[in-house]
Amino acid sequence: MEGVDSNHMYGKELEVGVRVVQMACSLCQKLQKGSVRPSPEQVISKDDDSPVTVADWSVQAMISWMLSESFGRENVSVVAEEDAQTLSYNTSTSLLASVVATVNETLAMSARFGLKGPATPLGGSEVLDAISRCNSTGGPVGRHWVLDPVDGTLGFVRGDQYVVALALIENGQVVVGVLGCPNYSIKKKLVNDSSVLQSDLWQEGCVMYTSKGSGQSWMQQLVQGDGSLEWPNSASIIRVSSIDNPVMATFCEPVEKANSNHSYSAGIAHRVGLRKQPLRVYSMVKYAAIARGDAEIYMKFAKAGYKEKIWDHAAGVVIVEEAGGVVTDAGGRPLDFSKGVYLEGLDRGIVACSGVNLHEKIIGAVYASWDSSDL
Ligand SMILES: Nc1ncnc2c1ncn2[C@@H]1O[C@H](COP(=O)(O)OS(=O)(=O)O)[C@@H](OP(=O)(O)O)[C@H]1O
Ligand SMILES: [Mg+2]
């Protein structure tokens, strides 16, 4: 019952990654549940109409700062979703103040997560600097951290599923993946005792992680309350589902029709004989569900012209693969993380499956139906 330890390849990167993602989840939970939950005016619309909140900027600042501290600023290249422009406007003083307060409150808990915080609280310019440093564009050479501070921001704002996603790419390959899922519970063992509420048997939130080539993905509980993170820790190996009969399979897809064509995926589902209603879930929790065997298929077919970003997939893909699953584009080719910020050359969409049989069926159905679709 122990997680991958620091003797493992990428041991230090994995350990620091898990620690900072745990800390980031704690930050997000406080914001999502607490009195400081973002008010509507603190949910800002970006140029692509997607929302951004204090949580997105605070997580990015905190993780960027911690990675620099742990590996040396000059060695760290981070490709991440947010920039600091909006926060730097004169009109954003109170927004920046909220971010700075949230970052410092979180960094003050560093010791509980086995990390070292700053000697004195960070100022506004240091926080802006930490966010802006994550402007790397990645590429085929060297090491690049890839961060989606809050993936599924809509889910976060609505009190639903979201993740903190951190990955490390080395020479174009995803080598470490960490997914923090604050609202995706771990089911504890069922207890045959009527005095115990079943709802008390669920532990809130989990963190999944892996390193490439380990052949194993792991899941641990989210640190709750005043708890501390132990490492190597008590974690469980997760494995994809063994179901390969389409009749029994569950498929998941994005909640928003704007992000994936629901009627096209329904057509694919019909062709391969999937019977269950789709599980519509915000964020990379869809990859998490495949990795731990709660669903068998994840399909995403974005509108023509939309370019998928590496931070929306990197951590989820490696965790699914190491848990025994298959992830490709809709043409059946591996996703290419070596081309910078975007998954360049992506063919039609993304298909993640628990095994090769289901995967072959879905890809076959895409080839058989694409020309008659309006995508
Ligand atoms: N037009 C369009 N098409 C496809 N994908 C888009 C599009 N616009 C945005 N995005 C990206 O989708 C991320 C959310 O994807 P999800 O799978 O979680 O979708 S959904 O929220 O469940 O509908 C979302 O991630 P976050 O911004 O981190 O929430 C975006 O990066
Ligand atoms: Mg995202």
Q: Layout of SSEs?
A:
Elements: H1 11-33, E1 44-45, E2 51-52, H2 54-71, E3 78-80, H3 85-88, H4 93-107, H5 124-132, E4 143-151, H6 153-157, E5 163-170, E6 173-181, E7 186-187, E8 202-203, E9 206-211, E10 217-221, E11 236-238, E12 251-253, H7 262-272, E13 279-280, H8 285-291, E14 297-300, H9 314-322, E15 326-329, E16 350-353, H10 356-369
Parallel strand pairs: 3-4, 12-13, 12-14
Antiparallel strand pairs: 1-2, 4-5, 5-6, 6-9, 7-8, 9-10, 10-11, 14-16, 15-16
The site of 3'-phosphate-adenosine-5'-phosphate sulfate has 20 residues, from strand 4 and helix 6.
Small-molecule binders = 3'-phosphate-adenosine-5'-phosphate sulfate, magnesium ion
- What share of residues are in beta strands? 15-25%
Our count of helices gives 10
CATH architecture classification of the largest domain: 2-Layer Sandwich
CATH topology of the largest domain: Fructose-1,6-Bisphosphatase, Chain A, domain 1
**CATH superfamily caption of the largest domain:** Fructose-1,6-Bisphosphatase, subunit A, domain 1
Distance between the ends: 46 Å
Largest sheet: 7 strands, mixed
Helix-strand topology string: HEEHEHHHEHEEEEEEEEHEHEHEEH
Low-confidence stretches: none
Neighbour order of strands in the largest sheet: 3-4-5-6-9-10-11
Mean pLDDT across residues:
91
Oligomer: single chain
CATH class of the largest domain: Alpha Beta
Number of strands: 16
Structural class: alpha+beta
